[in-house]
Amino acid sequence: MNDDGELRVSLDLLGRRRAPYAELLAGIAGDVVARFPPGDGPVLEIGAGTGQLRGLLPAELRARLVHSEPSPAAARALRDGDGGAAVLRATAEALPVAAGACGAVVGLCVMDAVADAGATAAEIARVLAPGGRFVHLLDMATLLEQPFARLAGSALVPIPNVFGDPGDHEWPLDIVLLKRDWLAGLLRFAAGAGHPFAAAFAPIFAPFLTAAAAPFDVATATSAFKAIASNGDRRRALAAMLTSASRLAVAQGHPPVEPLPFHSGRYLQSLLQTTFTGAGLTIELSEIVARAATRPARADEAGFGYRSLCLGHERLESALPRRLLTGAPADAPGPAQIHVEAGVFAFVARRPA
Hints:
Blueprint: H1 3-18, H2 22-35, E1 43-45, H3 59-62, E2 65-68, H4 72-81, E3 86-88, E4 102-108, H5 117-127, E5 128-138, H6 145-151, E6 156-160, E7 175-179, H7 180-193, H8 196-209, H9 218-229, H10 232-251, E8 260-262, H11 264-278, E9 282-296, E10 306-310, E11 313-317, E12 337-350
Parallel strand pairs: 1-2, 1-4, 2-3, 4-5, 10-12
Antiparallel strand pairs: 5-12, 6-7, 7-8, 9-12, 10-11
Helix pairs in contact: 5-11, 7-8
C-alpha cells in the first residue's frame, strides 16, 4: 500500500474511533472557536486530511474555510466528499497564501505530524492577519517520532504505561521510562533464573540495549512501542512479567523498578508553547478541554455505563471511574444509558494586532 493509501486507512480508523464522541468533539470545537473567534478574512486549515475537522466546526465557520492538504488522495476525497470545500495542495511548511491574508489558521492533530514544527509556526505567523489566531485541537494520541527523538540519547527506554490507568491523570500518562541499565540487568537476571520475561521481551528491547551509551534508533523504538501498546494481551503480559521478575530480582538484591512518567501530550504542549512564542505569537489557551453527556447506549455499548476518549486514551467501563475528565461529579447513568466524556488538547495562539 502506498503512503496515500495508508493515510486513508489511518484516517478512516480515526473516524470510527471518533464516532461515539462526535457530538462532544463538535461541542468542544464550537466552544473553542466561539471563545477565540477568527478575525476577518478566510480561515485556513492545515493538514485537512479528508475533512475530519470540517465536520466538527460550526456551519458558519465551514463557509469560510480553505483547506490545505499535501496528500493527493486525501485532498481529492475532501473535494469529492463536500462540494463546497476549497482545497489547496500544500504542506504546512509552505502555504500558497499571501502574507497576512488569513483571519485564522486551524488544525486537527497536525502539529505532532509536521516535518518541521518551527517552519510551520513561522509560516502560520506569516499568513495570519494582525490579531488573527491559530487554533489547534488534538483529540488523539500524539505521534511518537518527535518525543522519541528527544529521548533517544537519554539512556532511558520508553514503554507503554502498564503500571496503572493512564486516565487517572489530567493528561493521560501513556508512556513510562525505564533506565536502560536497570532493564538490561533485569533481563539478564530473568534469563539466568529461567523467568519467562527474558524470552518474551528480550527480543523487543534488544535494540535499546546493544550499547548503553548509544542513542536508540527512533524508528525501531516506535515500532517496538506500538507492538506492545496496540496489543492488549501483550500489554498485560508485560505488566505481569515485569512486575514478577522485578520482585524476584529485588529479593536477590537488585534495585526495584523506578518508572519515570512521560506524558506525550504534555511534550507536545511544551513544544507548541516554545515554538509559537518563538514565532512571535501570544499563547491564549493551552490545556485539555472536556465535555460530557449522558445518552442512550448503542448496541455495542450494552452492559457499559461509561466511556471516554482523551488524547487517544479510551476507557469503556461498567461504572463511572474514580476520576472523570470533566472533574465534575456525575449521576450514575440509568438503565440503557451511558455517560460519555471527551477530552481535547486545545491550543490557541494569537498574532499581535
